[in-house]
Amino acid sequence: MSRPVVTRFAPSPTGYLHIGGARTALFNWLFAKANGGTFLLRIEDTDRARSTPEATEAIFRGMRWLGLDWDGEAVSQSANAPRHAEVARQMLEAGTAYKCFSTQEEIEAFREQARAEGRSTLFRSPWRDADPATHPDAPYVIRVKAPLDGETVIADRVQGDVRIRNDQLDDMIVLRSDGTPVYMLAVVVDDHDMGVTHVIRGDDHLNNAARQMLVYNAMGWEVPVWAHIPLIHGEDGKKLSKRHGALGVHEYQAMGYPAAAMRNYLARLGWSHGDDEVFTTEQAVEWFTLEGIGKAPARLDAKKLAHLSGQHIAMMEDAALVAEIAAYLDAAQQPPLTDAQAELLQKAMYALKDRAKSFPDLLEKAHFCLTSRPIAPDDKAAKALDDEARARLRELTPHLQTASWDRDNLEVSVASFAEAQGIGLGKLAQPLRAALAGRMATPSVFDMMQVLGRDESLARLADATQ
Ligand code: GLU
């Protein structure tokens, strides 16, 4: 019987959560959810000089924003160092690893000579098969015994079988002379101890897999299923670098994209399900398989993200949108919504969410319900409120005062007034828009009047026509 699925995301806390890491986390999360499995988080903080608590916090924050909840407590790799060292000693006892007393100078000399003789410079330790009775009382490292011939096959679910000749693998050091374990050992021991069944990560780790298999084999542990995902490239098809713009997920949050859209976008960076482009997270969970991961590097596509964002904003529940906008404002270090603003925003949402590509875009259109009297018109709105337009609004006012206040009635009142005056509806709607919102990019005037209600709408109209 196969083991229950356990996946993990194992970031090194040396900076923010970048888009590639977020995608790796998402794939592991989706695969675990799709298989009723467990998704674990391990912070690979063994590089003490480069790891910071701030970076760990940033990773937690990024994952929380994306809704990638992990099971149990996050594991700190450095806390497991004694266990990693213990495994190195177990390998020593089992004879699958050995003490190597070669000094740095001796290793250099070996390489010099190999170069001179045109042989491989991979170090072959003279201590591999030495009789322990000959061991000196000197510092040593522990090396794992790599097979000398044959090949190591990484049966990768994305890349296919990747074959590495064993004569290209050296006897990797697993424990340094100061007794500290190496990273490559730590990963394997942790994955084994955490019960990880599937290792899904960037294909920059493919070479590590061959070396990590040495440790699995030395310990007689079951090798996990490997799935190495091609890295993400920039829009220009080149490897990602700073010049490609936003790379940290926090930057995407601050740009005002909903987390659901970001999950959809990240999922499509390297994974596909037929022709489906816009999907919910529930659908992604239902559909996710390792077979759906492509072999070619995915490309960033800012237009696609904006499109997906618009689609998800339109699909979201009004209350959920307001809650996520509040979180966005916080992330973007903007003033929070007051309760009254949040209430009005939710009331207006039906008229706002269909055409917004991002939260700032939506909030721009929502200006009319976030601002308060007296409304300062921007330049365009001020122009739309010239003397002639204000005179017309003054004439319109009594018709609105007597209209029953619902969207359809208001539309009929304004349209029949326009007709009676022999003017196009636009001639009336534009100044009305300017009076109600102080802006020209808004939902329809009838929606605004509906949301604002009679008293507020008429007061704004009076302010503008005084
Ligand atoms: N800590 C590694 C990284 O951040 C990942 C190691 C792994 O997934 O095995 O790239």
The CATH topology of the domain at 80-229 corresponds to Rossmann fold
Largest sheet data: 3 strands, parallel
Total number of helical segments? 20
CATH-defined superfamily of the domain at 80-229 = HUPs
Bound molecules: glutamic acid
Taking Cα atoms only, what radius of gyration do you get, to the nearest Å?
32 Å
The main sheet orders its strands as: 1-2-3
CATH architecture title of the domain at 80-229: 3-Layer(aba) Sandwich
List its salient traits:
466 residues; mainly alpha; Rossmann fold; Arc Repressor Mutant, subunit A; three-stranded parallel β-sheet; three-stranded antiparallel β-sheet; 20 helices; 12 strands; binds glutamic acid
Question: What is the strand and helix layout of this fold?
Answer:
Layout: E1 6-9, H1 19-34, E2 38-43, H2 53-66, E3 75-76, H3 81-94, E4 97-100, H4 104-116, E5 141-144, E6 151-156, E7 160-165, E8 173-175, H5 183-193, E9 198-202, H6 206-219, E10 225-229, E11 232-233, H7 249-254, H8 259-268, H9 281-287, E12 298-299, H10 302-315, H11 318-331, H12 339-352, H13 359-365, H14 367-370, H15 379-384, H16 387-402, H17 407-421, H18 425-437, H19 445-452, H20 454-465
Helix pairs in contact: 1-9, 3-5, 5-6, 8-10, 11-12, 12-19, 16-18, 16-20, 17-18, 17-19, 19-20
Bound molecules: glutamic acid.
